[in-house]
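To assess whether the prediction recovers the assembly geometry, we first specified each molecular entity separately, as shown.
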Amino acid sequence: MFTAFHEAIADISATIRTHQNRTGRAVIGVMPAYFPLELIHAAGGYPVQLWGAGGSVEHADAYLQSCCCSVARSLLELEMRGVSGMVAAYAFTSLCDTLVNLREIYRRLFAKPTLEFSIPAAQTHAARKAYLTTVLEGILKGLESVTGRAVSGAALRASAALYGRIRSLQREVYRIRRQKPGVVKSRDFYTVLTAGFFLPPEDYASLLERLVGGLEAAAPHAGRRPRLVLSGMVFDPIGAHAIFDGVHADVVDDDFANGWRSAAKGALQVDDLVAGIADHLYHGAPCCCIYNPEQDRHDYLVEKVKAADADGVLFWSIRFCEPDAFDRPQLAERLRQEGIPAFTLEMDLATGNFESARTRVEAFVEMIGGLAS
Amino acid sequence: MTQLAAFNKMKELMTLYYIEAKTSTAKPVAWLTSGAPVEFVYAMDVIPVYPENYAAMCAASHQSVALMEAAEAAGFSQDICAYARTDFGQDLLQGGPAGGLPPPRFLVCSTNICKTVIKWYEAVARKYRVPLFLVDTPFLHDGLTREVVDYTVAQFQDLERFLAGQLKRPFDRDRLMEVIRMSREATGLWKKILDFAKTLPTPLTSLDAFIHVAPVVTLRGTRACVDYYQLLYEEVAERAARKIGAIPQERYRVLWDNLPIWFKMRYFEKFFEERQCALVAATYADSWGGIAAAQGIQASDPIEALAVSYLNIYINFGFEERIRYLARLIDEFALTGFIMHSNRSCKPYSVGMYGLREEVAKRTGKPGVVIEADQNDPRVFSETQVETRLDVFLESMLPLP
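The predicted structure of the complete assembly is given in tokenized form:
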């Protein structure tokens, strides 16, 4: 069931080049997070989502301190090594201070065009809406200059429907994982999501449809194992997810920016695009990087754990990610008040050896397993 | 630091400010970021308290480590800003030179200095269960635009409504205009004081500026602040006229980029003085002096001009603008080189700094050095490493003719 997804990410550059040659679309590298992929696709671009990479960082050291997050460092490394040569332009968002400055670094170092989705953080809907309108105008112009094609209403509706379908199918996979713990191994699950970062949406939607059919028919494993919800910005490094098989625990849900926080978004409403984008940004699953005083991450996470019948939360923390790190102590405290154990696992995308992480997760799982029984 | 008679006045001013903030029952207290539009808060007779200023005081008085350790024990990662950790620690222990900050009735923060403040103030808002008002000032990748100014002005209007709602009385526009006038007067005087460092020998150094910046951070918009800077202006002007140098010998004149290293002020004073090097320009101290008027934006009223000044902040600029600005300072202050503090705690200032150093050096022909440190956390400061890098830099720099 998962072979095609694993194949798609076995050699990501080859995957992107193959589809770029086939479709003739300009590859646009999409930086974390929440850039509306629909706009890129409707403008004739081929969006590939860049959430960081493994491997050592050597070239990027000349421009980014070691106290910058491994997402930013590894992405710059890819561009400096020429691995991202097929990327024609980059789409940034103003998600955090590092990404805002990273765009400036790219503008100084590389000739490739960059766009930015400046995400409003104003207090009121009216202020956000007016600013968002000008931001979107800038993005649409920028995309047109990269792809040579203006975004038409018809193209936007088709792209919105396609991405809406993808996220709806992803939510089905999430539902099946919650309802039948163990039916999808964690590594397979996140491979499915990762493949979606790089495959053209039409191909990815077909693969997801087949997968959902297969998973519906699959039987869950017998017995109840400790159940975890994972929370963090990114679910990488993907290799680390093999830990959960070894420690006999089931990941039943997540709160990742490149996981559920993205998949939770419905189809983009394009009749009023500004309202549609605002709805994507400020409603649905809350994110530590999106300021919205009307949403509360604490209630949200507690509800998520209860709905998934989970036994604990594992904070999957990428080092030097400030927005995620700031929220964690109070979030963990709230979980404890609700009787939900929580534990932080520090990660770095460059890490390839997960032995120490495995030992720590094992101890946590034993603890919650004891509590659950 | 340079022996300035005004120092005692400043000490008295800051002491009275903290005493009032800690003891006042008549006026409510709000916590603000250093780049928040405090004029609106003063206009409503609220006492603004600045956790950043207090965190710097904690570090300068060598009390930040114990406070940060308390925050870390409460779960806050060492990866987050050391100001925030110091603040969380002072709150937990009621520590630091003023015995902790008075609790806030509400919070006001602005993203012009970083996005980190959103997370920091959200944590404070949850802890105290108080409302937070955020003024979003988008990063100016390509300079100021009319849309961004309008966006900021619209938020100022929302801020007026927020304050009126919190304080249950109408917002006082007339008072705001008076506060804005005093705020401009103080920042104008501050800018003129900093400009005296263009004279040779410089009558004050950037290390002095880091100390004397405190009133313009905390009290801008008040008469006491204007009076203080008038006093300081006169003293520095006289020193400049009489050619009294801040250090005995001035062979090198350099710029300091990024926040000070608050726990090493005395150390750097001695270090640079021994090497006959005067720090004469600093982007951090300049941030409260108002940067040159924005290109193409004619502010039609005082509120709009205020929006421009809160957007037009060095670390809210794109890199091309930063390079131009640094090159201009290097030229106007007749500098022999520049020092960039790669500050673990401040991403907007530091991310991209290595490339900026290269470009500024190329554009100006002046040498620059990057040192790795932190504004508030002595545990990540390596004296040997910093000293070695600075010594190599100083040796390679051409002195003044």
